[in-house]
Amino acid sequence: MKKIVIILLVCCINSVFAQQVFPLDTPMIDRPDKAYYKDLNGELNQYVGTWKGTWEGKILFLELRKIKKRYTLNDGTYFDVDSILGERKIISANGMVEVDRISNFDENSSEFYGILGQKKNFSQKFLLFQPKDMCTKTANLDINFMDSQKTQMRLQFKYNPHGVYESCPYYHQVIVEGKEWPMNFPKDIVLTKQ
């Protein structure tokens, strides 16, 4: 009898403190504390891996990983979400490495985050590109798979609108001269899964 009471007590405690699991596409309105928005159907798996493409003689490697990210709110409550995080490596036409964030993949502050759905068309997926040292300038990379096996994907680059502070080192170049941000990423590229 004592064992049964202990087992019931443990089960009750587990159910009180258990994390509630929801599918990724569940709206996060009024989310409960400790909620976990989990990739139950493996829909993020198609993005995971190392992808490779070329543009202007450069080679781009994009490594995407599925990570369980925790978001803690000001009141101490939190929720977890399965997300795709990514880093890039760019090799110039002469073989010099221009960017290499893959070697030191930063799960806490990666340059790519997603997979997200467009507000007007949720089925259109994109990655958020937030390059380092660009004065918080970001871009969306719209994703379209090119084949049914999902071994090739096309990324289309679109800047996100927001102001540029005069203290930004690129202010004069971008605002005054009207030139592009030096983000070192193609506007349109097809990547192949490696």
Describe it.
By secondary structure, this protein is mostly beta strands. It contains 2 helices and 11 strands, in the order αββββββββββαβ. Strands 3-4-5-7-8-9-10-11 form an 8-stranded antiparallel beta barrel. About 6% of the residues have low confidence.
What's the structural blueprint in terms of helices and strands?
Elements: H1 2-17, E1 21-23, E2 35-38, E3 49-55, E4 58-72, E5 78-91, E6 97-100, E7 112-117, E8 125-129, E9 139-145, E10 152-159, H2 171-176, E11 188-193
Parallel strand pairs: 1-2, 2-5
Antiparallel strand pairs: 3-4, 3-11, 4-5, 5-6, 5-7, 7-8, 8-9, 9-10, 10-11
**Rg value:** 21 Å
Q: Helix and strand succession?
A: HEEEEEEEEEEHE
Write down the overall geometry. Answer: globular
How much helicity do the residues have? 10-25%
- Unreliable segments of 5+ consecutive residues: 5-16
Main sheet strand line-up = 3-4-5-7-8-9-10-11
* Mean pLDDT across all amino acids: 87
Number of strands: 11
Count of helices?
2
Largest sheet: 8 strands, antiparallel, barrel
Roughly what fraction of the amino acids lie in strands? 35-45%
Distance between the termini: 58 Å
Which class best fits the helix and strand makeup? mainly beta
